[in-house]
Design a protein that fits this description.
Elements lengths: L3 E7 L2 H9 L5 E11 L4 H14 L5 E4 L8 E5 L6 E5 L5 H16 L2 E2 L8 E6 L5 E8 L5 H15 L11 H12 L4 H11 L20 E6 L3 H14 L3 H17 L3 E8 L16 E8 L6 H17 L14 E8 L12 E8 L5 E10 L2 E9 L5 H20 L13 H8 L14 H12 L3 E5 L2 E4 H16 L1
Parallel strand pairs: 5-7, 10-12, 12-14
Antiparallel strand pairs: 1-4, 2-6, 2-8, 2-13, 3-4, 7-8, 9-15, 10-11, 14-15, 16-17
């Protein structure tokens, strides 16, 4: 029987937020799929996993409620129960192997789990062709964030390659107490930060075709298709502007949301790693939190100008994040953004084994929609995760397509006015461009807003309205009409 070495630790503000939206089904599961290349011995992997997970108390922590307490307590157990399942996929073709891995990862990401009993970590090793393997790790979201999966990958590689692990390790339960002390502080910095976050309170954006009253559904995903050339251009634009790829993607997301909602003021709950201190960088636990980033979108501003503004606002929020209470910016589910940088230096040790994350799923906040970018050694992937109780798949696919189009234009010309960004592609764009062209449509009547959208696609900077010295372009006219439409709907 397992015995408890430490008991009665209160949970962190991040864990409190997860508990707040958990239900009878349990707590959402976070998962990571790793690619393992090189000669891998199953027993050696089991020993390495036991070694690595045993180092981090949070990976042998259960959460139990006491009758007189509203929130559960962290209970750290002496021993970790760990089992590595092994499944052989070598009988499948290469394509079928990858399909099965994606299916298993997606199924795991939809799971819920009780958090009162062991085991905390579940693991499955898949045997693939050509001596390759994939490792799937899953655990309650109360125990891990995206960066934690990267820490585990590095430590697993170190153990398997014979390298020594860092002896000095900060445990999550110690950080928990530090976080509570900061939030309860009365010094000037704490008071100023609380006032800052109070000003960030907002009503979440409402997208077209969004159900007003809904039963929360399952989390579904739509892939955003970004070519290799676009990824290279994305990195180049980020470097040229002195920003990073995360800033560029977040800016494009703000601009798309402003366009489809008709709101000049957009608020996106932006995931922050919460690991600005060196002592935390190699720790495991849910350090991440979602910070509201508020942007005022001006149609005449250029994309690169908006990019600098978004980057500055994001950094301002992160400088105050130690005093932010997760979930404190809005009472209803909002729209989010995540960027997970899981690229790790590929260094071959004596065993010539590499372990790199290729897919990650974490749940630290209840959101109705989020854009998720994951940068790994295998490349950059971007997805839209949405609540199927709020949205149907078709408008989400169109939203993903619109993001692709707008981002491509901004990457091609970072100085483009944001009001000139087009949001249509494929058949939708062709239908609009065909309006008024050719004898076949001479007798067809189109709504005025559709004709304006068609002109925006042709020449968004052309003058639409003149009044003395004042000029309104077609791009600016479309933005203004979208905003008016949203206000009339409300």
């Amino acid at each position: 029987m397992q015995t408890e070495s430490l008991a009665g630790f209160r949970i962190s503000p991040q864990q409190e937020r997860i508990v707040a939206f958990a239900d009878d089904a349990g707590t959402p599961v976070s998962a990571c799929l790793y690619e393992c290349v090189g000669p891998l011995d199953v027993e050696a992997l089991r020993a390495a996993l036991a070694n690595v997970t045993g180092r981090h108390e949070i990976l042998r922590t259960v959460f139990r409620k006491h009758r007189e307490l509203k929130l559960p307590l962290q209970m750290i157990l002496e021993q970790q129960t760990l089992n590595v399942r092994v499944e052989d996929l070598t009988g499948l073709s290469g394509e079928d192997q990858q399909h099965e891995l994606r299916r298993r990862f997606a199924a795991t990401a939809r799971e819920f789990r009780a958090v009162s009993e062991m085991p905390v970590v579940s693991s499955t090793l898949f045997r693939l062709a050509d001596g390759k393997h994939s490792l799937l790790l899953a655990m309650p979201s109360l125990c891990v964030d995206a960066a934690s999966f990267g820490v585990l990958a590095e430590e697993l590689w170190q153990v398997l390659s014979g390298a020594a692990l860092t002896a000095d390790l900060l445990q999550y339960v110690d950080v928990t107490e530090w976080q509570h002390d900061l939030l309860d502080g009365s010094e000037d910095a704490a008071v100023a930060a609380r006032m800052f976050w109070k000003d960030q309170a907002h009503t979440p954006l409402l997208l077209p075709l969004e159900a007003g009253e809904w039963e929360s559904g399952s989390s579904e995903r739509v892939r955003v298709k970004i070519s290799r050339e676009s990824v290279e251009r994305l990195r180049a634009v980020a470097e040229e502007s002195g920003m990073n790829a995360e800033d560029v993607l977040l800016t494009a997301w703000h601009l798309l949301l402003s366009r489809v909602t008709g709101e000049a003021r957009t608020v996106v709950l932006t995931a922050s790693g919460g690991r600005e201190y060196d002592e935390i960088k190699n720790a495991v636990g849910p350090f991440s939190r979602y910070l509201p980033v508020t942007v005022e979108v001006e149609g005449k501003s250029r994309f690169d100008e908006t990019l600098r503004s978004v980057a500055a606002l994001t950094r301002q929020g992160r400088s105050q994040q130690d005093w932010f209470v997760p979930g404190g910016a809005a009472t209803k589910p909002g729209i989010g953004f995540e960027f997970h940088d899981l690229r790790w230096p590929v260094v071959e040790g004596d065993s010539r084994i590499t372990i790199t994350p290729v897919a990650v799923h974490v749940v630290l906040e209840k959101l109705k929609l989020r854009l998720i970018a994951t940068d790994t050694n295998a490349g950059l992937s971007v997805n839209l995760d949405y609540d199927s109780g709020r949205y149907s798949r078709e408008p989400m696919e169109q939203l993903a397509s619109s993001f692709e189009v707008g981002l491509a234009q901004a990457l091609t010309n970072p100085r483009i006015p944001v009001g000139s960004l087009s949001l249509l592609a494929g058949p939708a764009k062709e239908r609009l461009l065909a309006m008024g062209v050719g004898v076949s449509v001479a007798s067809v009547s189109f709504p005025m807003h559709s004709l304006i959208s068609a002109q925006v696609l042709r020449s968004s900077g052309a003058a639409a309205v003149r009044s003395d010295a004042e000029v309104l372009t077609y791009g600016e006219l479309e933005i203004g009409s979208n905003r008016l439409a949203r206000h009339l709907v409300k």
